[in-house]
Amino acid sequence: MDPVKRRAGQVQNKTPAPVQITAEQILLKTKERQEKEPAPPAQKITDVDELNDFRLRKRKQFEDRVRQQRYNINVWLKYAAFEESQHDFRRARSVFERTLDVDPRNPTVYIKYAEMETRYKHFNHARNIFTLTSRYKYTFFEEMLGNIPAARQIFDRWMGWKPDTPAWIAFVKLEMRYHEHERARQILERFIQCHPVLPSYLKYAKFLEKNLHDIEGARAIYQRAYAELGLTFANTDQYYCAFAQFEERRSRFPVERARTLYRFALEHLPRTQAPRLYAMFAQFEKQHGDRAAIEDVIVSKRRFQYEQLKADKCNYDVWFDYARLEESQGNPEHIREVYQRAISCVPPEEDKRLWRRYIYLWINFAMYEELEAKDDARAERIYQLCIDNVIPHTKFTFAKMWVLYSQFLVRQKKLPEARALLGRAIRTCPKHRIFRHAIELETQLGAVNACRQLHQRYIMWAPTASAAWVRFAEFETDLGEVDRARAIYDMAANQAAMDVPEAIWKAYIDMEIAQANPEGVRAIYERLLGRAGTVKVWVSYALFETDNDPALARAVFERGYKTIPKDMPDERATLLDSWRDFEERYGTPRPRPQSKLPTRQKKQRPIVGPDGQVQGWEEYIAYTFPEDAAQARSKMLAKAKAWKLKQQQQQRRLTEGGSGEEPQEEIDTETGAASTEGRRRRRLGLGMSLTC
Questions:
Q1: What's the CA gap between 472 and 462, in Å, rounded?
Q2: Cα-based distances in Å from 364 to 351, 382, 406, 566
């Protein structure tokens, strides 16, 4: 194929057109442009010969069409309709018979055939056809002719074949049209015997209520349905809703009967069928009940929802909500039942994360028994059962449970039992909270020696816990044993590893300040500076001296500024800022630290990853101190002076005729002067040249 032609046939511009044309628009325009076919001319038949010619021509056309489309039933029906329009019934019957030979099971052919015979009052022919086709049409045909016994006889024979529900209902409607109520009742009795299902009974009851106004008979049918069908078929929400609505409409006491039915249904129905029943019951109570009844229905519905949601037994949030719901109703039996079922759902694994929510079920249960039910013995059994048999103390424990149990025993005035319980907890599974609670209990009881022993055991169990040391020291301070407190602080400060060491030093300093011992505070600060001379310690030390003597505070600031290394610009800047604030408040004619304050400048530096690649940039503050800048300038001037002196020496040697390879004079880069060793070498070299 020629590439030029191929390129010419391709679409060069593939952008969408501003006006889009759909296929529907193309077809509509095409149809509009088509010329309408001229209508066939009107043909008028004036004599018998023309009529015969017309019939012959039409029959030939139909025969050709049925020969070409033998199984197209519409062609056959049009052929029969043409013969019917010509009132040639013999030919029309012949066409229908030929059609039935082609498709003997097509009900439409039979119906059209029978309707033709009926229109022209060929009743016997129509009966013969109706016996082979729809029985609805047959009964309607006989009823239209006024032959009710024949129609009833057709229905009787039909009901012997046990047809579906619509056939029975049609039979009943036939009898009701002629006011044969007893016959209609008998037909419905046969109907429920033929179809013993719940919808059949409901139709029977509704018929008696609506058409015969037989309220007692309808109620008896509802009761028969439950008795004859049993729990398997009648125990459904459809049955109870229909029965309750019937009682609500027709009973002399609709509220009591309907409410009884609803409650009975909610107690006996499967849970899968309850939602619709709850909705109907709630609607009923809103119409006929009071506030208490409505709330009762809502609570019952929520109770059912919780029963559905607790399929996951370890979903303890559902149990909490369920228990609160029952507590709001105030029924102790239901509340205890819910709690018993909830605490029986033990977590599947001994993992404390899974047990955290579960253990609160025990706590809430015990609290309810103590505070709401006022049953202290049952509450104590709950605490004891949870601690002794439920919590696996060898793997983990819950300090909250021990503390709550001990507090309960104290409220019951069982102090020995409470002390023994806390001692057991400390021996088996010590926790910070248990120690603190035991110490607090002994402190309230005034047992000083017991408190000291507990504090000692506490710091022996957790020697790195700063809070334990601080509590012990504060306890001794409250007793007036300041020397003991100092000894405890000293021991804590000498510990190699501490979780929050600054808490120890702060508490120690606060104690000495409270004791009005500034020398002791200074000694602590000096010890702390010897260990960690951070800027926070210097600032805190200076602020302490500010309250005593501003001159001492200024001296601390000066010491700190000289001590902090120059490679820690952030700390130096922080100290200078605090010093500046101090001078602004307690300023004297002495020079202030403004001259030492650095200039700040935002800069960026790369963020280098573990692989050595730059992953981004971060901003930081660059500090430029005046002293550092002056020192850098002095170093640069010294180096320039040394370079100039070196150049002069080289020029002098060249002028005197010396070799450029003579030993050069060593220049001190700090001062720019020649070193002693350089001068000695130069004198020695000069003497050797003169001797030669």
A1: 13
A2: 21, 10, 16, 61
- The answer to whether 624 and 601 have CB atoms below 8 angstroms apart is yes
Q: Where is 620: in which H helix or E strand?
A: strand 614-624
Which tokens sit at 504?
Answer: 């120890």
The answer to whether 478 touches 441, Cβ cutoff 8 Å, is no
Say how many residues make up the chain.
Answer: 692
Q: Which residue(s) pair with 616 in the sheet?
A: 607
**Residue pLDDT, tens place only, 221-274:** 888 888 888 766 666 777 777 787 787 777 556 677 777 777 777 666 665 556
Beta bridge partner(s), residue 623? 600
DSSP assignment of 228-258, as one string?
Answer: HHHHHHH-SHHHHHHHHHHHHHH-SSHHHHH
* Dist. CA 124–CA 118, nearest whole Å: 9
Distance between start and end Cα atoms, the chain: 105
CATH code linked to domain 431-589: 1.25.40.10
Category of 657 on φ-ψ map: left (φ > 0), alpha (ψ -120 to 50) or beta: left
Domain boundaries, the chain: 431-589, 634-653+665-676
Name the pTM for this structure.
0.58
CA 2 to each of CA 6, 7, 214: distance values in angstroms, whole numbers, following the listed order? 6, 9, 95
Dist. CA 416–CA 452, nearest whole Å: 19
Q: Which pLDDT band, with edges at 50, 70 and 90, does 305 fall under?
A: low
Which own/partner pairs from 616-624 qualify as long-range (CB within 8 Å, at least 24 positions apart)?
A: 621/570, 622/569, 623/569, 623/570, 623/572, 623/573, 623/598, 623/599, 624/598, 624/599
Residue 18: CB atoms within 10 Å: 5
Distant-in-sequence, close-in-space partners of 508: CB < 8 Å, separation ≥ 6: 473, 486, 489, 493, 524
Q: Residue 393: which residues within 8 A CB-CB, separation 6 or more? A: 428, 429
